[in-house]
Amino acid sequence: MRWRTANEQARLDEVPTILSFIINTAATALSAVNEQSWGMRLLPKYGYLAILVAAFWEGEVVLIAAGALCGSGYLDWRLTILAAAIGGSAGDQIYFYAAHDRAARAIKKSKRLSKWYPKVSKFVLRHGTVAVLLSRFAAGLRITIPLVCATAGMPARKYSVLNLVSGFAWASFWVAISYQAGTHFK
């Protein structure tokens, strides 16, 4: 019998932590909703705008709560996915366009980035489609991939289409998972 190292055990312990985080977030959102507070009265009017703004930066937690609210019947899942996908894609588009000049200058100035960048650039150009589609699901890469794609010379049209597809996949994934949790809290 092989004993697990502390690192392996820590990775195994992360899965229940993530699942409990999703369930706790959904339960908290739904318990607040059930009180019919002023927030509940504002939710149908401003909820989708809040989702769009939150997704613009990093919106997983808001999207998990919104998906649970969809499952409970408080929000429409189609509008939630639409708002999150547009917000998330718009944020990444801004990173992409802002990176054209600024990131190239930063790479030239930094010795560490100058050594690291050619390898990453080559990888992104070789696997650009997959990198853009999956970057939204990888923590920490959501901001990095648009910057590298822009400075590596990925065409803006290609990036924009892939970014929008990735945004819809990301929003659909989180809403679908948390929607299921929301159906149990009705």
Number of domains: 2
**Major sheet details:** none
Work out the radius of gyration.
19 Å
Coarse shape: elongated
Share of helical residues: over 70%
Mean pLDDT: 80
The H/E string reads HHHHHHHH
**Low-confidence segments:** none
Classify the beta-strand content into a percent band.
under 5%
Describe the structure concisely.
The protein contains eight helices and no strands. With 186 residues, it is mainly α.
Structure description:
This protein has helices at 6-33, 38-57, 60-71, 77-109, 111-126, 128-135, 141-152, 156-183. The chain is mostly helical and 186 residues long. The longest helix has 33 residues, at 77-109. The mean pLDDT is 80.
Any descriptors?
single chain; 186 residues; 0% strand
Strand and helix map with partners:
Blueprint: H1 6-33, H2 38-57, H3 60-71, H4 77-109, H5 111-126, H6 128-135, H7 141-152, H8 156-183
Helix pairs in contact: 1-3, 2-3, 2-4, 3-8, 4-5, 4-7, 4-8, 5-7, 6-7, 6-8
